[in-house]
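hi! just following up on the protien thing from before. the input was this:
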Amino acid sequence: MSREWSNGWTHRRRRFPVVKLILVVLICVLILGVSLLLIYYLIDSKNSKAQGAFASGTSVAENNSEQPDGSEQFTDSEKPSEAAPIVIELPKEHKVDFYVPEHEGIPLILIDPGHGGYDVGANAGSCLEKDINLAIALKTRDQLNRMGYVCVVTREDDSHLYLSDRTNIANDIKADVCVSIHQNFFDQTDITGTETWYGSEDSRDLATFIHKKVVEHAQSKSRSVQEGDYHMVRETMMPSCLIEVGFLSNPEERNNLLSSEYQEKIATGIAEGIDEYLKQSQSNKNS
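and the predicted 3d structure came back as:
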């Protein structure tokens, strides 16, 4: 082996460990950099969620939960005066302002027009259940207020509320009575009539009074008054019922339900049924 060749081999062997060391250092630096970027991203993401929750007025845990804890969450600690708003915190980041007048000694009634917004309910062409429910509810509210009661509705326009929103409102404002208004639909178009549902024996009399009066004023077919496992009658903490006024699938009944005059008759039946129930309840308390 020549001296020149031997010296060249020796130099290569000396340079190789240095190159290897440099590569190892570069790889370590790269790994460290990626790790720091990942840690920064996770911290920044967590802070963004917390800031978003703070801006919406709810905690991160509340944003991730589907159901509230059922407790009252009023923004004002003072007792509301006449026409003062009661702001109720609802799931899905909802806030609903309710103007409940002073009603000491006067029963507070909640009327719930079913569906609303993108939830149209039953429909037959351009005839939407949500619209009919709202029209009847507003007419019922006006009649009850004229009778001397304090009556509010869960929605006054074409807005959407979840079922849990509606029962939270009823329970938080401590309504004395809650009535949810709906329409029916069936594949067979000859089916007609009124059905009324209640969730417990405490609500049976309320459902019976309302059903009887609606059938009387609207001259509709009486189908049934029975117990049912519906959210609006199961989760409310006061006497409540759900009335299916008529069938949108039946052409004649649908035309009636679209009539303002017919809607007024139904509202009269609901209002008179509630009135009779409350008077009976008061009489039972006094006896």
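Strands lie at 85-90, 94-99, 108-113, 123-124, 127-128, 150-153, 177-184, 194-198, 222-227, 240-247.
The first strand starts at residue 85 and ends at 90.
cheers
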